[in-house]
Each structure stands twice: as C-alpha cells, then as structure tokens.
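User: quick one, fold this
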Amino acid sequence: MQNNGKPTPPRPVLDVVVIGEALIDVVTTPEGTNEHPGGSPANVAYGLARLGVSTGLLTSMGADRRGDALEEHLTSAGVTLLPGSRSPERTSTATATIARDGSASYAFDITWDVEPMDLAPAPPKVLHTGSIASFLSPGASCVKAMLQEFGSDCIITYDPNIRPALLGTHGEARHTFEDLVHLTDVVKLSDEDAEWLYPEKTLEETATHILGLGADLTTITKGSSGSLLATSTTTLSIPAAKTSVADTIGAGDSYMSALILGLLTRGTGRLAPAVLDQLGRTAAAAAAITVSRAGARPPTEDELRTKLQHQPQLRSHA
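Assistant:
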C-alpha cells in the first residue's frame, strides 16, 4: 500500500481496547422519532473515555450519516476509533416502537463483521467485549480469535448483555457464552442475564458456576438491590449507591466502565476482599450517577471521584 512517502503513524498506546457493536437506537412514539448512539460495547468505551481512561474501540459502523454521528459521539469523549471500524455497510439500528398504551415492539437491523486486529506491538492492559458482538456471526468468530490470541497479555473482561431476540435457541446461546467464559478473567452480568441463562440457579449459584468455568471474578448487578461480586474465596454484596432515579438507561454499561477503571487502578491487592469492596463501590457510584439523569450519560472522572468521596464505606458479606 502506498503512503506517498509519509510514515505510518504508530497506533496509540491504549489502556483498554473494546471490541463490539456500535449502533443507533431508534425510539418511535406517537409524538415522533428520536435517535441516539447505542450498543453496549460502544457505551462502555464511551464511559471509559469519560473516566479518563485511554480507550480504543474496534467496531463496525457504516459509511453513512448514522456512522458519522456515532464516530463524532465517540471521539468527542476521547475514544480512539481503531482501523477497520468503518465499513461500506449501513450502520446497524435497534428500533423500539412505543404505542399509546405504553406497549413496545422491537426490530433489529444489525450486521456484525470485523477483521481481527494485531494488538501484539502494544497490547492494552484490558481487552473488553460482550453483547451482540460475542454471539452474532460472522463477527463473533473474530471476537473469540482475539480473546484466544491476547488472553495471556491482557485482562479479559466480558459482559454478555443478553438480547434473546438475536441469540437463536437458549441452548445455543448458553453454549456460546460458556465457550467464551473460559477465555476471560472477569464476567459481568445483570440479574436478568443470569436468570435467562440459568433459570434453574440462584444468582449465587450462577456466580459459582461461572467461576467454575474459568473466570477469576464474577459480578452480577441487581439494579436498586446492588450487586454481587464473587471469587473462588470471597463473596461480597454491595448495596446500590443512594440516588434519585431519572431513568436506568446506560446504568449497566456505566457499571462496567467503572469496574474496568477499578481493575486498572487496584494496585497490588489483586482480588483481595478490600479490593473487591473498592471495585464494587466504584462501579455502584458510576451507575448511580448515570441513573440520576436522563439518557445514557455516564460520569466524568471528576464526577465519580466526588461521588465516592461522599459515599459511606461499604462492607462485604463473606
């Protein structure tokens, strides 16, 4: 490939690389239609950048106005859009149509296909993936290949963010999920994810099961009931941080972003109980800030620091 004699700029050194979908959420009501950026992995990348973490996103966005809007949204927060993330395909959408009686119907127009990226010259500290990108072919095979290749160089974090309408049969989805868990270090689920994947298990049993598949840490969020953090030796229950709730859009992704921030800044304690407590408090505080205002607006680094300074110390329950 010619470059007109100009040297190819080096890829920036990134603390986190996120692999996964970026899409446009389209919400149609009797009053009109609104569009806003979405996609759980893209939201996590956006949240990390807002927290001051150097973050790259490998995704698939179309060469259209929606793709332009997504790129502007992500880069405005400081996300580095990695090579190969723009494609000739149209940008994926998830459409929710709300009727006058409040009932909703959903439609998805999603294409997920990316090429593996060589991270070896400068591997990130954390490689994160999840959601539709880890299930939907053909791109899911790229996700798995990158986890396999770089798992020894990075902390691998995974949030399946289950979307049943896109996953085929329950058995197929659970097999895909479990096939990835053994490649990961940290798995985060919502209670709804856990109950869909393992309806026969309690949340504690599900956490134990996932640890048995190879994860070092399992986190299950429970909305206003807080979250559960579990390792092979410790189980903690972290209350939700007190806040007023505007809506819950983006809360789980903000929790994930702050959890990754905590992993990056935890020091030498690895996953000792005190470290888990700090991870849980940090993530709970980020989610509380997000739900306190309308839309998926995750906190900045300063907002999170202020929230933590005014939050009482939480204790674990082994």
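User: anything notable?
Assistant: Residues 16-309 form a domain with the UDP-N-acetylmuramoyl-L-alanine:D-glutamate ligase fold (CATH 3.40.1190.20).
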